Each structure stands twice: as structure tokens, then as C-alpha cells.
Amino acid sequence: MSSYPFLHPGDALPNAVIAASKTRKIAFLVGSPLSMQERADAPQVPGVSAMVTLIREHIPAESQATFDAERPHHKANEYQWAMHFLQGRGEKTAAERVVREAVLRARLDRQKDGAATDEQLDQDYLGWVLPPATEHLGKLLVGQADKFGPVLTTNFDPLISASIKAAGGDFHRTLVVNDSPFGHTTPSSNSTHIIHLHGYWHKSPTLHTGAQLTRNRDQVAAELVQILQNHTLVVVGYGGWDDIFTKTLSAIDGDRHKDVDILWAFYNEEDDAILEARYRNLFNKVPNLRGNTGLRCYRGINCHKFFPELRKRFGASIAPQSPPSSTVRQPPPSIPIASAPGAPGAATSHPSSAAKLPEPVPSASDRPTSPSVPKTDGTGSTPRSGSRRILPFAAAALVAGGIAAVWPSPSKGVSNDVFVVQTPRNLRPVQPQPPTTTAPVPVPASTLRSVRQQHQVVAASDAERGTRVSQLPRGRYAFVPMSAVPTYNANTPIYGPIQEGIELHRALSDGSLYFVGYADAPTITALGYPNPAPIVITPTPSSRRAQVASIPVSRMATAEVRMDKGTRVLVLHLN
To answer: Which residues does 141 contact at the CB level (< 8 Å), separation at least 6?
Structure first.
């Protein structure tokens, strides 16, 4: 444990958020406390202890004694343990049934819901009881859309969505349960992006156990890194599970990812040593972030008081919070699963100023001010060196390549749900080797065909391509998702033609690797210079960027995805 103080007082957190919002957008990561009320008898999604009790009710009677005997030995992760216990002894869909029942306990009047389907309940936004934290978070996201968003959550429920609707806003929901990029969807300009990291109660699998939560999901990790690089992330009500988020944090390089800025709120009002001991597992995973101020921690944060205070600090007039009505009934212990006909089984640094360099990297004033992911801030201020922002992919109702499926909605024709499904991969177990990337700067060619001829490459077939960069044969090309380039390495996934895929060539002559995209004339000229320069390319041509650029991977120092006048671009900083 550290012998130096590292916790900041809770009243300093709003000041830190305000300061950060002047230069970049604020993203949130929130957990289960935002779905809980301060009163135990109010409608709400159960907390951990109550969830474990609910899980027990779904365990076969003959196994409940074993459950009771083993439970005291798993206090550190009793929810994950309980779900694992249930999955081993209950029916296949038992976990989803538990999640569904838990989420529906946050309904305003379950008796009036009658035989409504899960989809109808999900879209009945005024029928959900909003805890104070969630209510004010929704108002903050709608009222300060240029400063806040996206929202990451480990919760399965629709309360954040409902809070945004109640505040007069709109949302775009992505359910991340497989290993696929989730930046391929583009919310509208007045929409907040909500990303459910562990799944959703309706029309989605849900993740609970350690094996489910910690499995490798490289593309999801790459998207999380983009959010961390382009936003200040405020973490509230999340204790640092062993999941994809903390796994991504543990891989963050404090020197390479200098723009990472995480403000982590802890509920406990405790001394440094006590709180550090309580969260030892989390802190042991992020030593690099703590060492370079990439992680700042705050104690004594009650989420139901923090979000109203934050809104007030941003100029909102906050009415005194009245206590929940004493007449509010505790919801009945269950709701008939069969009452939802047709419900699915799954529920619950700045560029060099040398002459003739390419046009400046897109500035903040060029970028949209939408609260959605992956949008950037709209302050119009000059970006700091290295400051990055998350940006969206081209909008589409249906994303090509099976990336997302959009379901119908009675009110708008399509719903707000985007379900991220796993991209098919070719299975060819080849031991990865570091790719050869040393190559001289080529003479840029004017057409894609001539670049391919120069590198002597043809498209790799499914059988020969492999699944990652190290497996791409000489004389072949494949595609890397633009969102994966910032975290490029020998194990970066490769595919056949995909939406927003950057072409990757492995030259036949020496095995050198090249990124190939479309650029403007100044960029093509700058590629011949030996000095560092920012290179802006896109996967597809446009009237502004119509020339083909070939960039040796060996010259790439860092990369980031940004928005430039409405277009999602890849910015490569070369050495």
C-alpha cells in the first residue's frame, strides 16, 4: 500500500469535473448504486446483497443448504459467486430470469403493467421509478449535451435511458456482450450514447461470472481506450469488478496514454490506508495510472447527492429533493414470466509547423457538439497537445458486415437499441510473430490499384488471411477496423472488407506493412518528409481527400480517431 495520501475530499470532485469540461467532454462510468433508492422500501433494482437473496430463491431447494453454507466464504465477490452457483444447478435461463425480475422491481406500479410485453415495458419510460442520481444524470446529459456523454454502465436496467427521455432528450443504446467494435453506430446530434458493458435485461445476454467478465475482448478494449484517450472519465458507483474495463485499465501505459484522466468517486468516507486496503485488488491493477496522475480518487461521494450538486455547479436550478412518498408500495416479490408473450429467453502533441505540411489536425471547433459517443467536445477551444476525443462512425440504420442489428420501434420506426454481435473470424491457429515493419518511405501513387501493384499485394482469401496482423502472408492485404489502429500491434484483428476498414498491405518483397487510405494533396507531399508529421486519412475517398496514401507502419508513433467537419478520420502521428 502507498505511504502517501492519494485520496481527495469529495467536495473537490465537482471542481475537477468543471475544470476538465473546459477542454474535453466528460464521459461517465456508473454502476448499481444509480439504480438503487436511498429508501429500502421504494421501487428499485436490488443491490448486491438483495440480489444474492433473489438468486437464492431461484436455486433448486435441494441445493439451498449448500448455498447457505458456502456463501460466507465468498463475501468479496458474492454476486459473481452466487450467479456461478445458480448457473451450475439451475435451468439454462435462470440467470436471465433473475435479472428480469430484479429490473422489474423498479417499475412504478407492477400491477398496472398487467400483461404488457417486456418490449412495451422497456419503452414505457414514465413507468420506471428513477433514483435521484439517475434522474439528475439524465437532466445533466440533456441540459449540458455539449459537455457530457457517453455513459458506460455495468447495469442491466433501462433507468438511464428513461431519465434521458424524462428530461426531454433522446438516447442511443449499445449492448456490448461479444468482442466487436461499438463505435460503428452514430447517434443523432441530440442523442446520448449509453453503452451497456455487461449486457441488458431485454433482448440481450447478460454477463455475470468471472469467466464471462474477464474473457479477452480486444476490440471492446480498443474502443474503451479510445474513450479514455478522448474524454475525462468520471467513475461513480462502480467498485472495479474483475471485468473488461479494469482489464483494459491494467493494460494502460501511463507514458504512452498520457491523456488518460480518470476521476474515480468512492462512497466510503475513510482514511487512505483503509480505503486502499478495501480496494487493493483494483489499485494493484492500475499502478501506472496512479503514478502519473491518470487516476485521481475522491472519497465520501454519495451519488444521489453528487449529481444534483454537479448540475447546480453547471448552472441548473435544483429544487429541494423531497423524500420518497411513504405510500409507495414495495413491489411484489415476482412478476409472472409468462405474462410477456413473445419475450425472448435472454432477459435480464501539436503538428510541426514546417511549410507544406498537411492541413492541421481537426480542432475542437471543427467537431460536432453532440453528447453522443463517439462525439467530441464542442467548446471551440484550441486542443491541448495530445488531447483526444472519441468520434462516431458514419451513420447508418443498419451497419454492414453484421456489426449491429436495429429493431423496430412503434414510435419512430426503429428503436434506440443497437445490439453488437460478434464479427465472424477465420480460425487458423498460427503462433503470432512480431510483424516486420521496417521499410523506406515509398513514392505515393495516385490510385489504389497502383499502390497495390507497387506493394505486389492481392486480397487475402478467408483461408489464408488468418485472424490477426502477424498471420497476414506476404503479398496479401486485409483490413483493420479504424477504431483498432490506435492500439495496433501484432495481435490486432484483421478482416476481409469491412465498413470503415483501413487497408493493411504486407509487401511481397520484404514483408513490410503499410496502412493505405485516402488523403489530401498536402498530406501526400508530407509523406516524403523525414521529419515527424500528422497524417490524416480516411477509409473511403471524398472530394476533399481523393488521393491514395501509403504509410509505412514503422513510421507510426501514435494514432487517434477524430471528427473533421462531419467526417470520421484517422490521424497518424509519424516519427
So the answer is: 148, 149, 151, 164, 167, 169, 192, 371
| Per-residue pLDDT at 182 | 67
Q: Give this prediction's pTM.
A: 0.57
Cell representation of residue 120: 412495451
pLDDT digits (tens, 9 = 90+) for 23-42: 999 999 999 999 999 888 89
Which residues pair with residue 569 across a beta bridge?
562
How many domains does one find in the chain? 2
**Distance between CA 531 and CA 319 in Å, rounded?**
57
Q: Do 477 and 452 form a contact (C-beta atoms < 8 A)?
A: yes
3 state DSSP class of 413:
coil
Exposed e or buried b per residue across 454-483, where buried means at least 16 C-beta atoms within 10 angstroms of its C-beta: bbebeebeeeebbbbbbbbebbbbbbbbbb
CATH number at residue 213: 3.40.50.1220
- State how far the Cα of 403 lies from the Cα of 209, in Å rounded to an integer: 25
- State the DSSP code for 467: S
Domain assignment present for 240:
yes
Percentage, residues of the chain above pLDDT 70: 72
| Grid cell at residue 108 | 412504478
Top-confidence range, 113-117, 175-179, 401-405, 409-413 = 113-117
CA-CA distance, 378 to 190, in Å (whole number)?
Answer: 13
Same domain assignment for residues 140 and 235: yes
Do 486 and 400 share a domain, yes or no?
A: no
User: What residues contact 459, with CB distance under 8 A and at least 6 apart?
Assistant: 476, 477, 478, 496
Residue 165 has pLDDT above 50, yes or no: yes
166 shares a domain with 284: yes
Q: What is the DSSP letter of 128?
A: B
Can you give the residue range of the structural domain that contains 284? 1-36+129-315+370-423
Residue 361 lies in a domain: no
Contact (CB, 8 A) for 243 and 214: yes
Whether 485 and 379 share a structural domain: no
Q: Is residue 394 part of a domain?
A: yes
Q: What's the full length of the chain, in residues?
A: 575
Question: Residue 378 class from Cβ within 10 Å (0-12 exposed, 13-18 middle, 19+ buried)?
Answer: middle
Residue recorded with cell 485521481: 296
Condensed to tens digits (0 to 9), the pLDDT of residues 454-485 reads: 999 999 888 788 888 999 999 999 999 998 89
Any domain includes 482:
yes
Residues 269, 383, single domain; the answer is yes
Listed residue (213, 224, 132) closest to 180, CA to CA: 224
Residue pair 506/513 in contact by the 8 Å Cβ criterion: yes
User: How far, in Å, are 37, 91, 212 from residue 59 at the CA level?
Assistant: 27, 9, 20
**CA nearest 222: which of 390, 398, 473, 84?**
390
Report the C-alpha gap between 314 and 317 in whole angstroms.
9
Co-location of 199 and 298 in the same domain: yes
Closest CA to 520 of 547, 500, 493: 547
Q: DSSP string spanning 139-190?
A: HHHHHTTTTEEEEEE---SSHHHHHHHHTT-EEEEEEE-SS--S-S----TT
* DSSP structural state of residue 91: -
Q: Are residues 407 and 491 located together in one domain of the fold?
A: no
Are 289 and 170 found together in one domain? yes
